[in-house]
């Protein structure tokens, strides 16, 4: 494990705050030419892209208070998701905003302290706090802060820093970029899609991509007729249930069966997924062929069930499913993303 220590703030001036957001990209991808990139201005805030350990970091400055920084972070999260969808690059970051550790009193650094050479570069002789350089943080820029980190391995090949920052800015042109974070199902689906690119096996990638589709599904119920039949069966079970003592195994079995019957009032996941996705494709025919989407999704979900229940599935079915999901899913999520933030 490699550890690093760096200056973590300006350490002077009036009270103001910066938002510090570290992230990694999927293995095999890289954001290049960061050293040649000038800061971007978005909504009167300065966005600077840098590296720390083996992380990329976006630093946004300055905010008048912590609350303003946290509100901005909601919009920035949408930008990171948009970049992941648009360029099919997995992104991993901490969505939990943490604070810094401020010391009870300013600590003077002696000449024999290992931190002394680091502080001399900025003419500091003391520090007021610290934070974890691998976590999302709102930090008081006027305080003298140290940044500590432990590196991860990052593999290369990818997209230019200017393209990355242009994509970040692009989302702020939408009317409501923060709304994506409020849509828990869509946010989770995009997060799962991004996470799939960190998986190393086809099986794990396939399951994660199907889970991203499942995350989108709204709750839907079966027909009124079916619910009436379930209620009739449940009524008969109630009559049988009272014949047994409350603590008996027979009564617990009946109550468990009744609980399972209640779940039958909801559509199965596979049926709900096909119906929901087809309803979107029917009005967005450029996403894929509306005539074949139900069949493809049924095949994919059956393969998913076999893989989870038996631990293995036909390799060709996995490959066909992956080819379709890698092409269709980001286009679907992009469309839903645009609809949400517009």
Indicate the topology.
Layout: E1 3-7, E2 17-25, E3 30-32, E4 40-42, E5 45-52, E6 55-63, H1 66-87, E7 91-93, E8 101-108, H2 116-120, E9 126-132, E10 137-140, E11 145-150, E12 158-160, H3 161-171, H4 179-182, H5 184-196, H6 202-215, H7 224-241, H8 249-263, H9 269-283, H10 293-310, H11 315-341
Parallel strand pairs: 3-12, 9-11
Antiparallel strand pairs: 1-11, 2-6, 2-7, 2-10, 4-5, 5-6, 8-9
Helix pairs in contact: 1-3, 5-6, 5-11, 6-10, 6-11, 7-8, 9-10, 10-11
Based on the model shown, name its key terms.
four-stranded mixed β-sheet; alpha+beta; 342 residues; single chain
Tally of individual domains: 3
Fraction of helical residues = 40-55%
| Total beta-strand segments | 12
In N-to-C order, the SSE pattern is: EEEEEEHEEHEEEEHHHHHHHHH
Tally of separate helices = 11
Query: What is the residue-mean pLDDT, rounded to a whole number?
Result: 88
Q: What are the segments in which pLDDT stays under 50 over at least 5 consecutive residues?
A: 152-157
Strand content: 15-25%
Instruction: Characterize the largest beta sheet: strand count, sense, and whether it forms a barrel.
Output: 6 strands, antiparallel
């Amino acid at each position: 494990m490699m550890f690093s220590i760096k200056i973590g703030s300006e350490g002077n001036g009036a009270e103001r705050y910066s938002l510090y957001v570290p992230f990694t990209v999927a293995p095999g991808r890289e954001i290049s030419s960061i050293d040649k990139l000038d800061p971007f201005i978005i909504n009167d805030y300065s966005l600077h892209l840098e590296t720390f350990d083996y992380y990329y970091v976006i630093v946004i400055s300055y905010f008048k208070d912590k609350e303003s920084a946290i509100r901005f972070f909601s919009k920035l999260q949408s930008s990171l998701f948009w970049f992941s969808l648009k360029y099919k690059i997995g992104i991993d970051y901490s969505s939990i905003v943490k604070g810094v550790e401020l010391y009870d009193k300013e600590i003077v650094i002696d000449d024999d302290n290992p931190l002394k050479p680091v502080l001399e570069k900025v003419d500091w002789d003391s520090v007021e706090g610290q934070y974890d350089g691998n976590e999302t943080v709102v930090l008081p820029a006027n305080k003298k802060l140290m940044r500590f980190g432990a590196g991860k391995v990052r593999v290369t090949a990818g997209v230019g820093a200017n393209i990355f920052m242009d994509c970040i800015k692009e989302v702020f042109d939408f009317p409501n970029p923060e709304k994506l974070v409020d849509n828990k199902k869509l946010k989770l689906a995009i997060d799962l899609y991004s996470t799939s690119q960190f998986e190393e096996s086809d099986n794990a990638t396939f399951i994660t991509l199907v889970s991203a589709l499942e995350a989108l599904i709204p709750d839907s119920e079966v027909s009124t007729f079916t619910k009436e039949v379930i209620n009739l069966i449940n009524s008969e079970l109630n009559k049988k249930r009272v014949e047994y003592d409350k603590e008996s195994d027979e009564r617990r079995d009946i109550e468990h069966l009744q609980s399972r019957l209640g779940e039958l009032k909801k559509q199965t996941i596979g049926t709900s997924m096909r119906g929901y996705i087809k309803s979107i494709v029917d009005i967005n025919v450029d996403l894929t062929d509306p005539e074949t989407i139900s069949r493809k999704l049924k095949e994919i979900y059956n393969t998913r069930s076999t893989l989870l229940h038996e631990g293995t599935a036909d390799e060709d079915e996995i490959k066909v499913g992956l080819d379709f999901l890698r092409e269709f899913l980001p286009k679907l999520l992009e469309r839903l993303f645009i609809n949400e933030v517009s």
